[in-house]
Amino acid sequence: MSTGADQATELKPETVRHLAKAVDVLVDEFGDRYERERIQGLMDDSVESLTSEGQVEDFLPALAHRFTRERLKALARASGPERAMPDVLFVGLGDTGRGQMAAALVTLRSEGRVVAHSAGSSAGANLDRGVLEVMAELGVDLTEAFAKPLSPEVLEAADVVVTMGRSVGAVQVPEGTQHADWRVGDPTGAPVDEVRRVRDEIDARVQTLLGELEAASSEAAAQPS
């Protein structure tokens, strides 16, 4: 694996083998569109990003595979033909609370008709337990979700970027991309009742956003070609 000599020597041999197998799987899926070297480079960068954010090495191959796959899919959407499904990115501070809830609620309320991502401007490691609990109340299982750093591919592919308050810091939203800033409470470490209140506020905002996206889509479809 071409993870870079310094990084590769720091990882266990078993981890390196699993990462190499993950690259093979991604090449099977995306190799008709991207060269192995491009896929390998994204994997190397994902590994570096996730290890710098404190991800446990035992879980690193699975998380790096998922993160790299998300980035490859975003690249394909951004460079492919015009698509029917809007793409929304929620950027929080640690990607352990508000953004994760918002992305999951977009998927839930749109019934998968809108692509949703979350990312952190300074990604943490584990989702807040209260967030997991209140989302489970809606039938949403976030136990397999993980905090992801903000990647340029996902940012470039987004039609809408929603920053989750001032704590996120400056996000370089691409020109022409719709941007909104949602000032909602931070659920991380809060009592469950407060986390539930934040969830419901985000849910209301999500449903308003989906209504706006649907109206914009209908208006575009009605325009003469």
Overview of this protein structure:
The chain starts with a helix and ends with a helix. Helix 3 packs across helix 4 and helix 5 crosses helix 8. Helices cover 53% and strands 9% of the residues. It is built from eight helices and four strands. The model has no long low-confidence stretch (mean pLDDT 88). The chain is of the alpha/beta class. It has a four-stranded parallel sheet with strand order 2-1-3-4. The protein has two domains: 69 residues, Helicase, Ruva Protein, domain 3; 136 residues, Rossmann fold, CATH 3.40.50.
What are the salient characteristics of this protein?
9% strand; 4 strands; 4-stranded parallel sheet; Helicase, Ruva Protein, domain 3; 225 residues; alpha/beta; Rossmann fold
How many DSSP E strands? 4
The tally of structural domains comes to 2
The proportion of strand residues reads 5-15%
- The spatial strand order of the largest sheet comes to 2-1-3-4
Q: The CATH topology of the largest domain is what?
A: Rossmann fold
User: Structural class, please?
Assistant: alpha/beta
Largest sheet: 4 strands, parallel
Distance N to C terminus: 48 Å
N-to-C series of helices and strands: HHHHEHEHHEEH
The overall average pLDDT, rounded, is 88
**CATH H level of the largest domain: which superfamily?**
Response regulator
- The CATH architecture of the largest domain comes to 3-Layer(aba) Sandwich
What is the tally of helical segments?
8
- Mass-distribution shape: globular
